[in-house]
Amino acid sequence: MDYDGDGSPDNEQYTSMNLMSKEKKIYHRHSPQQIQKLEAYFEECPHPNESQRQKLCNELNLEIDQVKFWFQNKRTQSKAQDERNSNICLRAENERIRCENAAMKEALKNVTCPPCGGPLFGSDEREHNVHKLRSEKVLLKAECDNMKAAVNNYQQIMLDSLTSVQRQQTFETLTSYGMNPYNPFNQPSSSESHTIQPQLLSQMDIPQLSETAAIAVEELKQLFTDDALWVMSSIDGTYMIDQESYEKFSQSIKHLRNLSARVESSKDVTVVPIEATRLIEMFLDTDKWKMLFPTIVNNATTIRTLGSELSTKENCNVLQVISEQLHILSPLVPPREFMIVRCCQQISDGLWIIADVSHNIVNSDRVSPSCYKRPSGCLIRALSNAKTQVTWIEHVEVDHTPDTHRMYRELASGSSGYGARRWIVTLERMCERMALSSIPIMPPTDWSETIPTVEGRKSVMKIGERMLKIFNEMLIMSGKVEFPQQSKCGVRISIRMNMEAGQPPGLVASAASCLSISRTPLQVFNCLRSNSIRHKWDALCHENVITETAHIATGSSETNYINLLQHTLAGDIGKNMEQEPDKKMMLLQECYMDALGGMIVYAPLDMALMSIAASGKVDPLKIPILPSGFTISSDNSGGSMASENGGTVLTLAFQILITDKNSKIKNVTENSVDSVSRLISKTVQRIKSLFNCPPE
């Protein structure tokens, strides 16, 4: 039997030894300070890994087995306590229902006839009425089933007539690859999230949604104002909700009861250069919401909007039902999908609160939901000089641990994953970008040989913004097909028929892989963005010289910018500039680095197309791009991003157009897929060689 150390048998550890052929047990009681530290760590991380356990051993002067067994016993105690609390709640609910049932039975004894005030029906009359109602129910149900069948039949006929050509093309494409056309491309694997199906809201649902939103707003107000509900994390120093205090005032229940489920909470604050009313307008428009958080919000749709039709400046009491999908960093991190109620309420002059909360009305089709959003949101305060203070709270239940790859598991579950810090850092970066894109002159930080006007600069910045968005949408890698491992984490391939506007039409293969590098994220970022050594890893350079022809700042940091790159043959630059200008390629690249990591995203464009984009005279949304690139994040082994220690988790993701819409060969061959896999594997090996990574 194992023991922990707070005085009870379950909190003591023992070792045994043989003395004079007689076994004797020696008990070790943990000190109150040791117990307090272990309890605090358990609240944040109930499943510490080996390195975390070793760190606790060094801090508390305990053996590794003592820490290991303490956490095992504590998890068992916590599970038992949760079950006891659940049983108590169920008993109370059962007793309440029994009391209501008894009260209803008593009320039925005194029922009178409403029209005449006569005595209640006798048993024969009641039986006759019940039989009549049941017969009417059967008839109505049969009529309802007939109507549903007719509607479904009509919809199927319309669907078949509209999509027969497209389905035939898909069948030909996939069967030529030797696959079931309705399996690898249309059916998600078990590790992928199920798409949330929006529910039609009836008029009866609206009061319940309004009540849920009102409760969420009041809960958020208390979380924003009561510092006693927050504790500082002993792992990364961020603030998290004290769950014991929270449960006392909110009386909430856990919606995810799997042992692997966990609660994530975080808070952060910033000041951004944007007017408060404009920021609120972007929060309440899902298209602008996606644009504001392109590296987090993969998709968002407003199902219904309720409330005043007045403008944001006059009245901000708005209620929305929104479907959103969030995703970060890598295909190895599962996306999070929510159906939420979003409420925006003006508290006082210059002060607003926006609350998001999941609701069971719009989540009823989820068979096994893996995430639930508790009341979360932000407090928006208007400041002088067109600035806004934003305080952000994230509070969710999530059960994605089994689906997250071990490289990203700790990162995705911490404050640097989907927490408030990531939302705040992204908001800061995007607000700086919007401020720079709106200035009417060419700033001194920019220079260009190919972008002569302010309109051209704005056009290129919009293309860069869209390039980031397309790249992040691709990272989910839906409909993936696994291939043999050629790097530490293997290569993941996704094939799709691309018909999206602003992207090259045709069959596109996406490939992704990730690796761990024993350098800091900033070192990796600086190395990969360096033009002088790019030819050592980038296959698009063909080992040629890279020159920068334009540089546009997108933020206050020198790491945030868009640049145009051109590769030419060394010693023959003048000849290449004169001949075949329409066939020379350029790279449009966007880089950024913030407190949680960075990205380097680029797309090839021929010079003729780049000239059109830089002119500012065409809609940048019509310029077709197919981006590839890297995501760079800390492996959390060295603390903060600014630390000189620690390593990096690097994700590579490439997109390649296999066949265009005019090609006669529309089938996917094994050779083309193998070529994509070899390309990314070769790039991985080049990057490992660049950073002197040890052989596997």
UniProtKB/TrEMBL annotation:
<keyword id="KW-0804">Transcription</keyword>
<dbReference type="GO" id="GO:0005634">
    <property type="term" value="C:nucleus"/>
</dbReference>
<feature type="domain" description="START">
    <location>
        <begin position="218"/>
        <end position="436"/>
    </location>
</feature>
<comment type="similarity">
    <text>Belongs to the HD-ZIP homeobox family. Class IV subfamily.</text>
</comment>
<dbReference type="InterPro" id="IPR002913">
    <property type="entry name" value="START_lipid-bd_dom"/>
</dbReference>
<dbReference type="InterPro" id="IPR023393">
    <property type="entry name" value="START-like_dom_sf"/>
</dbReference>
<protein>
    <submittedName>
        <fullName>Homeobox-leucine zipper protein HDG8</fullName>
    </submittedName>
</protein>
<dbReference type="InterPro" id="IPR009057">
    <property type="entry name" value="Homeodomain-like_sf"/>
</dbReference>
<feature type="DNA-binding region" description="Homeobox">
    <location>
        <begin position="23"/>
        <end position="82"/>
    </location>
</feature>
<dbReference type="InterPro" id="IPR001356">
    <property type="entry name" value="HD"/>
</dbReference>
<keyword id="KW-0175">Coiled coil</keyword>
<keyword id="KW-0539">Nucleus</keyword>
<dbReference type="InterPro" id="IPR057993">
    <property type="entry name" value="HD-Zip_IV_C"/>
</dbReference>
<keyword id="KW-0238">DNA-binding</keyword>
<feature type="domain" description="Homeobox">
    <location>
        <begin position="21"/>
        <end position="81"/>
    </location>
</feature>
<feature type="coiled-coil region">
    <location>
        <begin position="90"/>
        <end position="150"/>
    </location>
</feature>
<dbReference type="Pfam" id="PF01852">
    <property type="entry name" value="START"/>
</dbReference>
<dbReference type="Pfam" id="PF00046">
    <property type="entry name" value="Homeodomain"/>
</dbReference>
<dbReference type="GO" id="GO:0008289">
    <property type="term" value="F:lipid binding"/>
</dbReference>
<dbReference type="GO" id="GO:0003677">
    <property type="term" value="F:DNA binding"/>
</dbReference>
<keyword id="KW-0805">Transcription regulation</keyword>
<dbReference type="InterPro" id="IPR042160">
    <property type="entry name" value="HD-Zip_IV"/>
</dbReference>
<keyword id="KW-0371">Homeobox</keyword>
<dbReference type="Pfam" id="PF25797">
    <property type="entry name" value="PDF2_C"/>
</dbReference>
